[in-house]
Amino acid sequence: MSNEKREAWKVFQIIAEFVDGFEQLSHVRPAISIYGSARTHPSHPDYQRAESIALALSNAGFSVISGGGPGIMEAANKGAFNGSSTSIGLNICLPHEQQSNPYQDISLNFRHFFARKVMFVKYASAYVVLPGGFGTLDELAEILTLIQTGKTRRIPIILINATFWKGLIDWFSSSLLAAGTIKEEDLKLINICETPDEVLKTIFDFYEHRGFAPSAKEEEVLLEL
């Protein structure tokens, strides 16, 4: 088969990933997306934080969406799986590292990062981000950019472990803000929390005067993701 034909057929594979994701996740709201390193060992405090936060969120009525792999992703799925709400894994096919964890009520498989990213954003009422590497930073930058540019609705963005994130947040202020490449209000998109109770309070405070479901206007924005 020629490269042109392979590219054309690829479109159908991409469409299938979106359709499958939309069909399986359209009923999971409210949901929280949780990110972090695939390399974090179960004995690490960050793994244990992620598990306890996911458990608290699940018992509070939130479905939990994670990457479906090991490390922080496994901890998030495990906590949610042991709670009262749905544990969702958005698995990605990678040449290394990604191996599905067994704590998923809904398990989706993606070949394309961009299709997977849409699912993380489209159904999330908040982002909880634990320490991680390039992939975690990519997801964090993605949601900050989408909210800043108005391409998705504003939701709480919660960073866990202030010590880990301090250098990055300081750099945002000392370099990006100082250079005028972001505004002061952009920094206010970010919340720092340490405990499950703080995470829950941040989310419930944000939605205190509105429901978790997107408004009609926000639904229109989400259709353009």
Summarize the structure.
This protein has helices at residues 3-25, 45-59, 72-81, 113-122, 134-148, 162-179, 184-187, 196-206, 216-222, and strands spanning 31-35, 63-66, 87-92, 106-110, 124-129, 157-160, 190-193.
Secondary-structure topology with pairs:
Elements: H1 3-25, E1 31-35, H2 45-59, E2 63-66, H3 72-81, E3 87-92, E4 106-110, H4 113-122, E5 124-129, H5 134-148, E6 157-160, H6 162-179, H7 184-187, E7 190-193, H8 196-206, H9 216-222
Helix pairs in contact: 1-4, 2-3, 2-8
- What average pLDDT do the residues reach? 94
Number of strands: 7
Q: Major sheet: size, sense and barrel closure?
A: 7 strands, parallel
CATH architectural label: 3-Layer(aba) Sandwich
CATH class division: Alpha Beta
Q: Which stretches are low in confidence, meaning pLDDT under 50 for 5 or more residues running?
A: none
What is the terminal-to-terminal distance?
32 Å
The CATH topology:
Rossmann fold
Which series of helices and strands comes N to C? Answer: HEHEHEEHEHEHHEHH
Major sheet: order of its strands? 4-3-2-1-5-6-7
Fraction of residues in helix: 40-55%
- Overall domain count: 1
